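Is this the right way to post structure tokens for a design question? Let me know if I should format differently. Anyway, here goes:
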């Protein structure tokens, strides 16, 4: 699968998680960072999306420790939480 197709697929999967909170967290994160990722980071994010939303959200908020495979630049960026769109 080419890069553009992978990113389109990831964008859809990121924004269709099942809850509004997860959509905003994961979809907003993808929109902010996804286009800049290299192939290894895209593959890691694809794997991350297989995890439960509650786990991903806990890792992002720091209420649980992420598995070693996810620790690094992507999880560090996920923890900043500055990408979640807030409506007024």
């Amino acid at each position: 699968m080419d890069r553009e197709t992978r990113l389109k697929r990831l964008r859809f999967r990121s924004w269709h998680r099942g809850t509004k909170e997860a959509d905003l967290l994961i979809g907003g994160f993808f929109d902010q960072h996804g286009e800049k990722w290299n192939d290894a980071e895209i593959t890691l994010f694809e794997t991350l999306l297989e995890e439960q939303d509650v786990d991903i959200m806990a890792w992002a908020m720091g209420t649980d420790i992420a598995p070693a495979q996810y620790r690094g630049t992507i999880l560090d960026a996920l923890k900043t939480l500055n990408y979640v769109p807030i409506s007024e």
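Format looks fine. Someone answered above. Worth noting: The first helix runs from residue 3 to 15. The chain has one domain: 3-80.
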